[in-house]
# Entry
Amino acid sequence: MSSVLLEVQDVCKRYGEREALSGVSLSVQKGQTLGLLGPNGAGKSTLVSAICGLIRIDRGNIALHYSEAGAKNADSKKYIGLVPQDLALFEDLSANENLSLFGGLYGLSGKDLQTRIQSALELVSLADRAKDKPSDFSGGMKRRLNIAAAMLHDPELLILDEPTVGVDPQSRNAIFDALEVLKARGKSLIYTSHYMEEVERLADHLVIIDHGKVIANSSPAELYQRLPAQAALNFELAQALAPEQKNALLAMPGVMALELASSACTGALRLQDQDHAFACLQYLQQQGHQLLYFATAKAKLEEVFLTLTGRSLRD
Ligand code: ADP
# Structure
């Protein structure tokens, strides 16, 4: 049996002249966390709305493969929990009352609803604020309450559209903790963001979209492989690096580039991988250089976007 939960095939969506999605295909496996990355305006929210059936697509197909026998396409909302970018909460109702209202919309009631509310509030670390109103909450707490609301009906797929925008560090951590718990429970997640490091923390698989097109669709490890330089050796020398020493370093195996400050004492060697750092350090010592500082660093996955598009993810 296939373990694919969601299949998006060749989806196109136009807003007037603007093509927001042009031939997007991706799939989400059961239990998988998909990081959907792209700069502002790439088409992430449009894709999320299309998956949730909130907008009509012009072309393509979106299919949710339910584990429950007999479920129909029209039931898709039952299997998806959406945490939208725009917060949908009633400021004058308590957290508990907000969740009762959302639960009611999903046909939940009575003791079952109360049990689910309690466990959803615990999941997002708001159990002690059940009686408080969102008007007294920080932006991050409101977002956590939104996540709780989206989980009440126990959906198989939770979609979070930029869940950490405008969120304080404490809530950010609470959100990550909650998502880790959901992952461990075997839920499938789609997490959209324009922060690579956030997505990297959670995602098993990454899809990068730009101008409505998929430009990468692979595991984080495979994406790293696409980086020409996967590591850096940052250094500071007591004396300036001579031009011939610079050329010798650049000719060494695995050295992709050398960025040198105007003093020629401080710099960074871009390396294919960290294993090449040792030979570079040895060379500098053989040349009589005194190293005041050195450290290796792994390249950031964020640089993949730069490599693929020539632009930074947050331009
Ligand atoms: P993202 O979520 O990646 O920031 P969006 O899906 O919101 O991107 O937007 C993709 C493109 O579609 C953008 O160029 C945006 O201006 C346009 N767009 C989104 N929604 C609408 C709309 N309702 N009407 C017209 N254009 C829209």
